[in-house]
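User: Hi! Is it possible to get a structure for several chains at once, not just one? Here's what I have:
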Amino acid sequence: MYAQTSIQIELPSVFPRQAPTASPEGSVAHPVSFFSPGSEIYAQGEKAKAVYQVEFGAVRIYRLLADGRRQISAFHFAGETFGFEGDITHHFFAEAINSTGVRVFRVGSGTDLSHHLLPLALKGLTRAQEHLLVLGRQNAIERVAAFLLDMAERQGDLRQIDLPMSRIDIGDYLGLTIETVSRVFSRLKEKGVIRLHSLRRIEVLKRDALRAMGE
Amino acid sequence: MYAQTSIQIELPSVFPRQAPTASPEGSVAHPVSFFSPGSEIYAQGEKAKAVYQVEFGAVRIYRLLADGRRQISAFHFAGETFGFEGDITHHFFAEAINSTGVRVFRVGSGTDLSHHLLPLALKGLTRAQEHLLVLGRQNAIERVAAFLLDMAERQGDLRQIDLPMSRIDIGDYLGLTIETVSRVFSRLKEKGVIRLHSLRRIEVLKRDALRAMGE
DNA sequence: CGGATCCTTGATGACCGTCAACGTGTGTGG
DNA sequence: CCACACACGTTGACGGTCATCAAGGATCCG
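Assistant: Yes, the chains can be modeled jointly so their relative placement is included. Here is the combined structure:
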């Protein structure tokens, strides 16, 4: 699709939707790598040798079945940290969704990050387990509602949500097909719950209705 | 259902199906609590103040929706550690499935367990994310196959698997109803893939067939 | 402006949930 | 030791939800 580009550049944080968490090692300078849309940050089976903090853009973490079915287990946006799924070897793929800048913190070799990583791992664990409830026990409307609420919350609970990812990504995150995602969006529009300014920019008109659906 | 019983007794490990992991604090003696079937170990909303190691028996971790739908996110058996879902406050319930002994390691108050907890949290994270793939992208047969393979692996890959949990628990773990679980078991019997010695004791006759299904 | 990708909408059917009835296993008390 | 009762599990009939297949429309890029 896209060739992987991993240029080492120093960039300021452009879209800090969320205050970046404190740098694991404080004042030490760490390189920012730039990834073009669709390019791979790491692959399943690779040795995990760093953790990554999103400076701008968005990242998807996913796994594949042999026949190509894909499950996105998490999205990560500006300020969020990822890269510790799997102790030694990555069990997942990480890809840039858009043009994305990622700050790299090399792990191992003396420095001890476990104090910083534990809370991040626990947060990831909680998120994953909450997502299990969505995939295991909620229907299509409830899944989309939960997704929109989560996106809204992570963007500061504004009325406007922008979705950096495609419908395919949303479907593969929610365990649905893109057609079902699209139909649910249409139904939510009909009901006056949301409004689409563009394909990837959504306004939430009735937050309570969403909450009632997403539980 | 059952009254909660939490008697502080010292018990030897009875069913060490798996070698217990090293005690987080080595030589210090820690109490073993006994829980009767169905009794609560901790509840959603409680402050997390300990981690727990299963001595014998089995534990289910789950979450509920308002209308009672339940999603079991994990089972834990002898030798396994749980209790760190949620940083400060538990976001989940933990219940004993059978008569279960649990060794309690209190957290906080000086002692620093983060070095011990991080690998456990990462393992839990990986398991949860793998389970996301099952719930999001696999059909009923594939889910049950994956479940049986996981159970077999955690019991040392013997031909005989014993399931400490009910069909309801299996259904709530796999995002299926008990009827569907039952039907899949029957189909696997018809195909000669498994054999039921009793309701909760299963013999795997064709491991390869299971692998082909569970991916 | 043109082409490709992404998204939407419709028709159809498969899979699995629901409801219901029956079978099986387990524990208790007579 | 047997009888009974209750929880658990199985099987069948049916319907709803969502996947699949297909076509057309919107959007974005050069």
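The helical segments of chain B are 114-137, 140-154, 167-174, 178-190, 207-214. DSSP finds five helices and twelve strands in chain B.

User: Great, thank you!
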